[in-house]
Design brief:
The structure is a single chain. The protein contains twelve helices and 13 strands. The strands form three sheets. A six-stranded parallel sheet has the order 5-4-1-8-9-10, sandwiched between helices. The longest helix has 16 residues. By secondary structure, the protein is of the alpha/beta class. The protein has a single domain, classed as UDP-N-acetylmuramoyl-L-alanine:D-glutamate ligase (3-Layer(aba) Sandwich), CATH 3.40.1190.20. A hairpin with a 2-residue loop joins strand 6 and strand 7. The termini are far apart.
């Protein structure tokens, strides 16, 4: 009998005997953007050092709280009476959203956080308070009997949203609530490093409140950041004048300028001038973001691609980016470092289902993986 090659003989000899299992290496869907890091001189050590400086930051978040409710449904058929689709709820989940989750992200990333908002005098407000307590966020929720706490219900069939139902009343808060909210915020500013306006355009941030707090924060050297979301509602990010950072989507930036034709870099530059902002980060969803900021003596625009190649749930990614990037600036990082950390935090967020806070450890773990050595020089 002809001798078998060694490899074949070893394979035959091993038949019938259990072979040691080879561990499957962990593969993260997050791909670090080394080209952007190289263009701006970013290293893993610098990024991790900035994360460490989040601890002890004193952050004040003011804005609209939202309760996000998801109802998974099973379709039962079509009604013979009126032709409507009949659904049966099978699972329900409820999350803290809006400015509340921005505050929770900031706390989970290491800051000491106080959150100020206005809610209805209802069970949803109690739920928001319980969630904030659980996340370790100090809060003052002013009750407004003229409105319900904003709730957004999403009815899903096979993972797809079939219908949205919003419970809200978007009028500006009354004068008495404005005075109480302003007074509380002004009393906190002497002990604040970062003021964040998280605006969903449901009445919590009337313009005079924004102007009062911005002027007082600027006079004290407090870092300032704003995000004003426009979806089914109308808003204007440019009304938050004098910020160190604004983070609109492309649609929000173009709406603020009524400019739907120019190149995105030109739109970002025009918005920076109109809003008198130090920098503008235009978030682009799966396409990442464009940052327009000072680099040396001149302003510069650069694209940062998205990090997560397998997103599971994109809801709340912008809120997470807003929190992490603003905190990086308040911690002394340059705009490019802030954008990188914000985008990485958002990548961690979209890798999980549900709007839950991203921890400092989540971001640090991605930077500390073997692949991050490509960022070191």
């Amino acid at each position: 009998m002809q001798d078998l090659p060694d490899a074949c003989g070893a394979a035959l000899a091993g038949r019938g005997r259990p072979q040691p299992a080879r561990p499957i290496p962990h593969r993260s869907p997050i791909v670090l953007q080394t080209a952007f890091a190289a263009r701006h001189g970013l290293t893993a050590r610098e990024l991790l050092g900035t994360l460490d400086r989040f601890a002890g930051l004193r952050v004040l978040v003011v804005g609209d709280v939202i309760i996000d409710e998801y109802v998974d449904c099973v379709p039962l058929g079509v009604s013979r009476e009126d032709g409507s689709v009949v659904l049966s709820p099978s699972k329900e989940a409820r999350f803290l959203g809006g400015a509340g989750i921005v505050a929770a992200h900031a706390r989970a990333l290491g800051a000491e956080v106080t959150f100020l908002t206005v809610c209805g005098a209802d069970e949803a407000a109690s739920f928001a308070a319980e969630m904030l307590d659980g996340f370790g966020v100090d809060h003052a929720i002013l009750a407004d009997i003229s409105r319900p706490t904003t709730r957004k219900q999403r009815f899903r069939v096979d993972g797809r949203i079939a219908m949205r139902l919003s419970h809200l009343c978007p009028h500006d808060i009354a004068d008495v609530l404005h005075e109480r909210l302003a007074g509380h915020a002004l009393s906190l500013l002497p002990r604040t490093d970062l003021l964040m306006f998280s605006d969903f355009n449901y009445g919590c941030l009337p313009q005079r409140l924004v102007a009062t707090l911005t002027e007082a924060a600027s006079a004290r050297g407090v870092s300032r950041a704003a995000d004003s979301q426009t979806s089914s509602q109308q808003g204007d990010i440019a009304r938050f004048a004098g910020m160190d950072l604004v983070t609109p989507t492309e649609r929000e930036a173009r709406l603020a300028l009524q400019n739907f034709d120019s190149r995105l870099a030109e739109v970002a530059a025009a918005l920076r001038r109109k809003a008198r902002a130090a920098q503008v980060a235009v978030t682009l969803g799966a396409q990442g973001l464009l940052l327009h900021a000072r680099k040396g003596a001149v302003y510069h625009s650069d694209r940062l691609p998205a990090f997560n190649t397998e997103p599971k749930d994109v809801s709340g990614a912008g809120d997470c980016y807003f929190a992490a990037s603003a905190m990086a600036l308040a911690a002394g990082a340059d705009p490019w470092c802030g954008a990188y950390l914000g985008a990485l935090a958002a990548a961690c967020k979209v890798g999980r289902v549900g709007n839950t806070p991203i921890r400092k450890a989540d971001v640090a773990a991605e930077l500390s993986m073997a692949g991050s050595s490509n960022l070191d020089r």
